[in-house]
Amino acid sequence: MNNEKKKLIIPYLIPAMALYLIFFIGPALYGLWISFHDWSGFTKDMDFVGLKNYLNIFEDPIYWQSFKNMMLILLVGGIFVFFIALLFTSLMSQGVTAKKAVRAIIFFPNIIAPIALAIVWNYLYRYDIGFFNSVLKIVGIDPVNWTSPDNIMMSAVISIVWYSTGFYAIILLGGVDKIPNTYFEAARIEGASTFKIFTKVTLPLIWDVFSIAVILWGINAIRLFDFLFAFGGPEPPSRMWNTAMYQYILGFGQRTPIYQLGYSSAVALSMVVVVLIFVITGRKLFKREVYEL
Amino acid sequence: MKTNDRSILLVIGKALLYIWVIFILFVLGWIVLASLKTNQELFDGFWKLPETLQWGNYYTAWVQSDLASYFFNSVIVVTVSVLGIVLVSAPAAYVLSRFKFFWKEPLTLLFVIGIGIPYQAVLIPIYLLLLKTGLINSHLGLIIVYVALSLPFTIFILTGFFQTLPAEVEEAAAIDGATANTVFWKVMLPMARPGLITVTILNAVSLWNEFLLAKAYINVNDQYTLSVGLYQFYQSMQYNSDWVSLFAGVVIIIFPILIFFLWLSDRIIEGMTAGSGK
Known about the structure:
The complex is a heterodimer of chains A (about 290) and B (about 280).
Chain A: H1 3-6, H2 9-34, E1 37-38, E2 47-48, H3 52-58, H4 61-93, H5 99-107, H6 114-124, H7 131-139, H8 152-177, H9 181-189, H10 194-205, H11 207-223, H12 226-231, H13 243-252, H14 261-286
Antiparallel strand pairs in A: 1-2
Helix pairs in contact in A: 3-14, 4-8, 4-11, 4-13, 5-8, 8-11, 9-10, 11-14, 13-14
Chain B: H1 2-34, H2 39-43, H3 56-64, H4 67-98, H5 104-116, H6 120-132, H7 139-164, H8 167-175, H9 180-191, H10 193-209, H11 212-217, H12 226-235, H13 243-277
């Protein structure tokens, strides 16, 4: 590499590095520092309390409730997202009518603003004049209170699955479309059934894409905030908070601000840990011989 | 018998796929219809059709509820942010992908780490930083944060793109006497166009819909972005139940994305799934 080219390294890297360090890595480290303190944000001084905030997490029932909801989205939501996504992928890879249109339509909900989705879904779930109860009425079933504190989390997960699935289906389909057609033809000539072709040919060949999609889902599901926050209405009941919502509410308050910046930061870092654990175990679980095309 | 069972499964699966598709179209259509009803018609029942189309709802949402200013706030914030993201990321990605130097690997890794850090971990510290620098409640502050937080993913994708470009063109241009700087702007950048378009689309869509950071850092009414403005409008439904105008607002936030999608759906789908397909 010539010297003239070498001179570019620093000026080309500096804007990105500076912004990234000052507005991302620096704050992340400062957040770690805050998490060792008691601080309302109003006073100048932070009280150093060591690991107290982290120990408090273990005795905080609201935290564990929020953790449960985070896991509900991650695991239960995830199972449905990938079950449906795989089903759609296997169907679409064998050809469906208007494949391109189908692909575009199932993808689209994923790029709608989550706030808009929350408003609409809340309305579809309305007890009196919502979509679901109006359908139940036609069939002759008693209406369900979809957004009662008991049911709201389940309803939220249904909506999240609805708007997320298309995205993951299309990631998987992208993997399937790369497989040469001859593979499928060969399997079909051998007399393999649709189901067999999918489990023995398609799935092993897209395993790589599948594992990346699952990890992507994990990161997105753990930090999911906007849809749930808006879906909960003006004052979301604490039973439907996930950890991201709890963290926000601890730091920025709901109607009545709580402002526990130290504790909020510790909660945020617990989320980083969950992401880490998910990514690491995910990679371990998915690690296996990858079939190269 | 077995084959029969399976073909039944296939039929059920296909039926589910088409119901899924139809339901999405139905929901989108219903939103548009709801935004054109009167509030009375909306409350008369889910299936009630509007007698005359109430375009006035859009006027109420756009003008009286100020979604127009939020809309333009969003347009400015998203446009400037995306330009900033590309301008800052492209040179960095170029250096990280096509140069050899000691710090290359650790720096690349440092950027990759950012992809896995949820925004929650920096939410409060960045708030304090913006407060200290007087950038809180300003579009400039939000833009800087958007650019900084979008860097890891953008650089990751662009690095992949630059790596695929052939070295010959770069060398030929250098032999022709072009400076390294010119080679980048005049030769490499145009060649990386598909990658640049991908990251532009990716960031434009996600920033248009972004809510958490905009909500946390902008607390002045006239500076709201569209998603925050729409959220506040939704909150006001407890006092003023003008639901039809709210649905007009929902259409307003979806509409640009829909147009964009109808125009470029292949590109958008490719772009948004590109990062995972590799």
